Request: fold
Amino acid sequence: MNILKKIIGIALLIYSVPRVWLVMKRVIDSGGDPQAIGAATASVLFVAIGLWLLFSKNKDKSPS
Reply:
């Protein structure tokens, strides 16, 4: 399960990091269009989720 979280986290980062750049450019070009700001928020959220999945510890282990 832990390796699956890492793979999904990496995939989200590969998808989202370049998208943040493009969406931020769209926000600047549109002058703050609400749709562009929403897309930027979603892209940043995907980056945060990807980082969380990539660096989270496995807490399913029972204490010994």
Remarks:
- The mean pLDDT is 87.
